Amino acid sequence: MVGMPPIATPATLTESARRRAAPPAWLVMLLVCSGQFLVILDVSVVNVALPAMRTGLGLSELGLQWIVNAYVITFAGFMLLGGRAADLFGRKRIFVLGLALFTVASLGGGLAQEPWQLIAARTVQGIGAAVLSPATLTILTTSFPAGPARTRAIATWTAVGAGGGAVGGLVGGTLTEFLSWRWVLLINVPVGALVLGGAVLWLTESRQGAGRRLDVPGALLVTAGLGLVAYGIVQTETDGWASLSALLPLAAGLVVVAAFLAVEARAKAPLMPLGLFRLRSVSSANGAMVLAGAAMFSMWYFLSLYVQNVLGYRPLEAGLSFIPHSLSIVLGSKIAPRLMNRLGAKPLAIAGAVMSACGMVWQGTMDVDGTYLGTILGPGILMALGAGLTATPIASIATSGADPADQGLVSGLMNTSRQMGGALGLSVLSTVAAARIEAGDGLKALADGYGLAFQVGSVVLLGSILLMLVALPQRRADAAHG
After folding, report:
1. Helical residues (DSSP H) of 203-322, grouped into ranges
2. Which Pfam families match (predicted)?
């Protein structure tokens, strides 16, 4: 569920870049899209490998979510900072730094011998991805002239990102089945090294001409605050909501988030300009995206656990079983712009969320005797197609209300909201599922726990639908696409 980072304004090339012959356009496209494919792939590729990781490292049921959340929280928390760092210090330099960090962390994760080592590696991977991903797009936008060539380049970049998310389950299942769960991470090392060498040799440097500041305190505070809140939620399952082990991290997380808001209000170049949230389109769309991300992001996580732990699928079978889901979310994303022209952005966003919620209610009926055709295929297609139809119109409404100069920033805020919502949603739904699993016994308890997670997710998504109905503006977004 990672989207497009903010697109940079036209850049001023450095003198060294002016003197150096520009590399072929196809080579620039290949290098930056390869980097983007890697970071998006790693959002979803580990899902199918989670049961094998649990067995290999002795992870707890709740501990599994941190293999996902450690990556997602740091990816989202540092993404806007990564985009600004690329503008300030040079797109090529930041691309190389992010890719090197991501590759080294992948090696560390693949060689991990303890759960904390794997979670630490995933955290560093997320930081590397947050540094790398915005740079991939800004390199494209500064390497191709405005017009059809740049449009085609961005379309290719977007398709590669969607493809990385879509094939993650199949890639993870294949590697886990025939090699080991470790290769889900280790495969990044040779590919990353190859792209890294090409970037050093052939990419040219560019940076923003005007001086800008990095809001490092903001990025650290928002990431730490949401991480503490997520940890506190997890602790409630084992120790209860009244326990100090849950209340202390929850309270600390809220204090840190409040500190983040205070820093942003005073920063000269804030990571998240709070003034933008005075716009109804921006605030309502981001709120809806947080709730939608909280519900939809966990779909792959719980389906992967259900088909392997309850139905007994092998990793490869699990990956293959998700192909219709992946195709559905890509299809929804592709047809959303056309449907927006006919229906309007707000009606389409609501219709997509309703479709996804119906799929979640259906998926919540899963049991120990489930079948692929009767339990997985139908609700999965509904959930994924609805998710694909929802994201684009919500983002369109958010950007339609903002000043043209803030379009890229608002896009980045939407991506951050979606990822942060997904991370917190996974913490809540995993805690709900674990509580039901602990209260029962055997495979039936697992099926009941995973099913309850989908049922609660549908309620969260209903909250997003209600917010869209009440708060999302309509006329400006619809006019923009009418």
Report:
1. 216-239, 244-266, 280-296, 299-305, 315-321
2. MFS_1
Through-space distance between the first and last CA atoms of the chain, rounded to whole angstroms: 27
Bridge partner residues of 206 (DSSP): 13
DSSP 3-state assignment of 12? Answer: strand
Q: Which residues contact 77 (CB under 8 A, 6 or more apart)?
A: 130, 219, 222, 223, 226, 416, 420
132-184 pLDDT per residue, tens: 887 777 777 667 766 666 666 666 676 676 667 667 778 888 888 888 889 99
**Cα separation values, 440 from 132, 436, 445, 448, Å:** 44, 7, 5, 9
Q: What is the pLDDT of residues 386-405, one digit of tens each?
A: 988 888 788 778 777 666 65
User: Longest Cα pair distance anywhere in the chain, in angstroms?
Assistant: 69
3-state secondary structure (DSSP) of residue 277:
helix
- Give the pLDDT confidence score for residue 212 in this predicted structure: 58
Beta strand segments in 60-120, E = none
Contact indicator for 38, 164 with CB cutoff of 8 Å: yes
Close Cβ partners of 343 (under 8 Å, ≥ 6 residues apart):
351
Query: What's the token pair of residue 80?
Result: 């806007």
pTM comes to 0.76
Cα separation, 417 vs 281, whole angstroms: 14
What number of other Cβ atoms are within 10 A of residue 47's Cβ?
Answer: 26
Host H or E run for residue 17: helix 15-19
Write the CA distances from 304 to 43, 311, 318, 332, 390, integer angstroms.
14, 10, 7, 22, 23
Where is pLDDT greater, at 408 or 389? 389
- Within 8 A by CB and 6+ apart from 2, the residues are 39, 40, 43, 75, 133, 161, 165, 415, 418, 419
Q: What is the mean pLDDT of residues 68-78?
A: 80
Helices (H) and strands (E) in the chain, counts: 20, 2
Taking the CA atoms of 446, 172, 326 and 426 in sequence, report the sign of the dihedral they define. Answer: positive
Q: Give every CB contact of residue 342 below 8 A, 6+ residues apart in sequence.
A: none
Cα(368)–Cα(445) distance, integer angstroms? 9
Q: Tens digits of per-residue pLDDT, 335-357?
A: 888 888 888 888 999 999 999 99
DSSP 140-194: HHHHS-TTHHHHHHHHHHHHHHHHHHHHHHHHHHHHHHHT-TTHHHHTHHHHHHH
**Distances in Å between the alpha carbon of 100 and those of 193, 196, 246, 374?**
8, 7, 36, 44
